[in-house]
Amino acid sequence: EADIYQTPRYLVIGTGKKITLECSQTMGHDKMYWYQQDPGMELHLIHYSYGVNSTEKGDLSSESTVSRIRTEHFPLTLESARPSHTSQYLCASSEPGGRAKNIQYFGAGTRLSVL
Amino acid sequence: AQKITQTQPGMFVQEKEAVTLDCTYDTSDPSYGLFWYKQPSSGEMIFLIYQGSYDQQNATEGRYSLNFQKARKSANLVISASQLGDSAMYFCAMREEGGNNRLAFGKGNQVVVIP
Fold first, then answer.
1. Do residues B90 and B77 touch, judged by C-beta distance below 8 A?
2. Which of B42, B61, B41, B43 is nearest to B51 (CA)?
3. Interface of A with B in 86-115 (CB under 8 A)
4. B95 reaches A (C-beta below 8 A)
5. Tens of pLDDT along A58-97?
6. CA-to-CA distance for A34 and A93, rounded, in angstroms?
7. What is the distance between the alpha carbons of residues B46 and B75, in angstroms, rounded to a whole number?
8. C-beta contacts of A62-69 below 8 A and 24+ residues apart
9. Does the pLDDT value for residue A22 go beyond 80?
């Protein structure tokens, strides 16, 4: 079972506000990921991290930023929210590399609405 | 180019019947992994089943099985004895060995189980 937690589950906020979406995992996984998903659509990788102090941009350009100061914590920040940021944001983590399955386990997601 | 293709329209399936969800993939990497995830209306992504490119046998996990046809580059999910709780979106995803454990997702298949 995966132990990965995202808060808040739902967030409605006005344009221009700074927001931070929280993601924490208790599995000691090195790799963590943020995906963006519009309703009924596929997931797009926006950020990932291989460990502490490691962050990389994903396949989909995003105005958000991330940090990885602790293994278990991978927050995502939007400095100035806009209506175009309205989406669901999903956080995931996985075990180290090699020929293992490297299953990504997901949190419950944050549904963000920017008015 | 799209790495994962899921093109079936939304599907209605009778309770207790089996359903097959199609997934084709595109890669030139000889080593890769294929995953299926379930996403209920609540939004979380639930890992269902994994198939490695070198696995000789089709993967099975309870009522889920994966029909892996490597030469055709297809990895169809079969859900046997459908239950009402199986109503959800189902996503096929691929991880390439050279992809740093990043997952590419398909657009998903909508399944509605009717009593």
1. yes
2. B61
3. 88, 90, 92, 94, 97, 99, 101-109, 111
4. yes
5. 888 888 999 999 999 999 999 999 999 999 999 999 976 5
6. 9
7. 18
8. A62/A36, A64/A34, A66/A34, A68/A32
9. yes
B50 vs A: CB within 8 A = yes
Specify the residue for token string 């993939």.
Answer: B25
**B31, B45, B54, B107: best to mutate for the A interface, most A CBs within 10 A:** B45
Local confidence band at B99 (pLDDT 50, 70, 90 cut-offs): low
Exposed e or buried b for every residue in A73-109, given b needs 16+ CB within 10 A? ebbbebeebeeebbbbbbbbbbbeeeeeebbbbbbbb
Q: How many whole angstroms from its chain centre is CA B45?
A: 12
Task: Using CB atoms, pick whichever of A40, A90, A102 lies closest to residue B45.
Answer: A90
Amino acid type, B6: Q
Give residue B96's pLDDT: 83
What distance in Å separates the CA atoms of residue A39 and residue A62, rounded to the nearest whole number? 17
Among residues 55-84 of chain B, which lie with CB inside 8 Å of chain A?
Answer: none
Nearest CA-CA distance, residue A42 and chain B, Å: 4
